Amino acid sequence: MAPASRSDLRITIDYAIDPGLPEPSVALGIADGNGLTIASATSRNDGVVLARDGRGLGSVTITFTKLPLLKGTYRATFFLACENAVHLYDQVDNWLVLNVSQDGIEQGLVALPHQWQP
User: What is the CATH number of domain 2-101?
Assistant: First the structure.
């Protein structure tokens, strides 16, 4: 269990691709319990060029700092795509299940940063 807004979420993705193809891109989507995608990230969009060895094997780690998700169960789906994130090579649905707990009584999906000024 990861307390909302207090824990980092670090995910390492290992991948294999034909070594004759250009460097791939990796994406992930995080969905709520109803299957609604609430967040996503792509290596291509973030300007990250993925490396791999001569056999086409590679690994990449993404870290979400101070995860803002509120209490609930979330699922992550991973995608391996071409260098421009246009052509999908592989997809792993619901690969990661994340159970988030929280101390407060906030409602919704995320804890938005805020400040009160009396």
Answer: 2.70.50.60
